[in-house]
Design a protein that fits this description.
The chain is of the alpha/beta class. The protein is built from 17 helices and eleven strands. The chain has a five-stranded parallel beta sheet with strand order 2-1-7-8-9. Strands 4-3-5-6 form a four-stranded parallel beta sheet, with helices on both faces. Helix 11 links the parallel strand 8 and strand 9.
C-alpha cells in the first residue's frame, strides 16, 4: 500500500535504529508532542530499538486529555439541561469531571449523542428545530477548520438552535510553556505532522531559535518516527537548533491556506486553560464577536468553576488530574513522568475504569502503555 507498507518496513526501521545508535554520543531527551506518535512508538516497540541513554518523553498532544476539567464540567451541565441535545466526539464521553462523565449522564437520561464531524451536529440541529443543539468543539489546529466550516454553514442556513462549547487549543504556545518551565527536560521536539499540514511550520522556526531546540516535523508511521528521531539527534550532536520537515509528503511550509482562512474568518486567539498544564496565554481559539450567536456561553449561564491551579508551576505541585484520584496525569502530560511511574497505573486506573484523561483517550499516553507495554515495563534511563 502506497505510503503505508514502505513506512513500516522492518529492515529500514532497523537501519535507522542503527544509524541513531551510531551518532548518539551522550544522553538526550526528545519529546514527541502528539498522542498519535506516542501510540506508534509504543505499538511498534520503537523505544526498545533506541540507545538506552536516548530518552523519549511524551507530550500533551492529545486533545481529549488536555481539555480542562472546568470545561468538562460545563459540558456536563449543558448535557443535563432538558432542551439540549449535546453532541460530542466519542472519546469525550468517558473523560471524568469531578464526579461523573458524559457517558454516566447519558445513562441517567441526558440526550448526549456521538458525532464524527461538527457537520453531523449541524444536521441534528436542522432536524430538531424545537431543541437546542450544542456541539463540544475540542481539539488542536487539526479539527478547528472543520469546526469553523460548521459555524459557517450554520450561519448560511440561519440556524437559531445551534451553538458550540469551544475548547480548541493551539500547539506552539504549549511547546513554549513547556520549554520555559524551570524543570524542563526537553532537548528536542518531534512536531506533530498533521498540525503542520494545516498550519505550516513558520511558528516552530521562532521557537527553535528562541529556545535553541531542534524541532523536526514528523509523520506517524514507524519509519517516520525513526527518521524524525535521527534528524533530531543529528542536530543535537551538531549543536544546531533548526526546524526540519521529515513529513514533506504532507506538510508544506505555509500549510493549508484554505483551512487557515476558514479558521481566521471564524475564530480569534484567546488564553486557554489546559488540563495538566494550567492556563497558557494565547493558546486557545474562541468564536469572533461576529459569530457570537453560535457561542454557547451567549445562550446559557454556564457554570464558571475556577480550576484549583492555573499556572504550570501550581499544576506541577498539584499533580492530581482528578480531585478524587491519586493519578499523576498532570505530570504525564508535561512529560515529567511515564505512565508506569503512577502508583495506580494498571491497577486502580485502567481503560475500563479510568481515573485520568490520558487513560481514557485513544491518543492518551497511559492508554498506549496499557495496551502495548507490559504493565511492569520500565526504560532504564527513565525509571524513578
Amino acid at each position: 500500500m502506497k505510503y503505508l507498507d514502505e513506512y513500516r518496513n522492518a529492515s529500514a526501521i532497523q537501519q535507522y535504529a542503527q544509524a541513531i545508535a551510531d551518532i548518539t554520543t551522550q544522553p538526550w531527551t526528545i519529546m514527541e508532542i502528539c498522542g498519535g506518535q506516542t501510540h506508534t512508538i509504543l505499538k511498534f516497540g520503537l523505544e526498545q530499538l533506541l540507545p538506552t541513554h536516548l530518552t523519549i518523553i511524551h507530550g500533551p498532544g492529545c486533545p481529549v486529555c488536555v481539555t480542562a476539567i472546568e470545561t468538562i464540567e460545563q459540558a456536563l451541565w449543558l448535557a443535563a439541561q432538558p432542551p439540549v441535545i449535546f453532541c460530542s466526539f466519542g472519546d469525550m464521553l468517558r473523560v471524568p469531571g469531578y464526579d461523573r462523565d458524559l457517558l454516566t449522564l447519558k445513562a441517567q437520561g441526558g440526550d448526549v449523542r456521538t458525532v464524527y464531524s461538527p457537520l453531523d451536529a449541524v444536521k441534528i440541529a436542522q432536524a430538531n428545530p424545537d431543541r437546542e443543539v450544542v456541539f463540544f468543539a475540542v481539539g488542536f489546529e487539526t479539527t478547528a477548520p472543520a469546526t469553523a466550516l460548521a459555524v459557517h454553514l450554520a450561519q448560511q442556513q440561519q440556524l437559531t438552535n445551534f451553538s458550540m462549547l469551544v475548547a480548541h487549543v493551539l500547539v506552539p504556545p504549549a511547546m513554549e510553556q513547556l520549554l520555559a518551565a524551570q524543570n524542563c527536560q526537553i532537548q528536542g521536539f518531534l512536531a506533530a505532522g498533521h498540525v503542520c499540514t494545516v498550519m505550516g511550520y513558520g511558528e516552530y522556526e521562532t521557537i527553535a531559535s528562541r529556545y535553541r531546540v531542534p524541532i523536526v516535523v514528523t509523520g506517524f508511521e514507524p519509519l517516520d518516527i525513526m527518521q524524525g528521531i535521527y534528524h533530531c539527534v543529528q542536530q543535537l550532536e551538531a549543536g544546531t537548533a533548526q526546524v526540519e520537515n521529515q513529513y514533506a509528503r504532507s506538510v508544506q511550509p505555509q500549510g493549508n491556506l484554505t483551512a487557515q482562512s476558514f479558521m481566521q474568518q471564524v475564530f480569534e486567539v484567546c488564553d486557554r486553560s489546559w488540563r495538566g498544564l494550567g492556563t497558557i496565554p494565547n493558546s486557545g481559539l474562541r468564536l469572533k464577536p461576529s459569530y457570537a450567536q453560535f457561542d454557547t456561553a451567549q445562550r446559557f449561564a454556564l457554570p464558571t468553576g475556577k480550576p484549583p491551579s492555573d499556572t504550570l508551576e501550581n499544576v506541577q505541585e498539584n499533580v492530581n488530574d482528578n480531585a478524587n484520584s491519586t493519578c499523576i496525569s498532570g505530570l504525564i502530560l508535561q512529560g515529567l513522568r511515564k505512565p508506569y511511574q503512577c502508583s495506580v497505573f494498571g491497577t486502580k486506573c485502567t481503560p475500563e475504569h479510568p481515573l485520568g484523561a490520558p487513560m481514557v483517550s485513544s491518543e492518551g499516553a497511559c492508554a498506549a502503555y496499557y495496551h502495548y507495554q507490559s504493565l511492569t515495563h520500565s526504560h532504564p534511563s527513565t525509571s524513578s
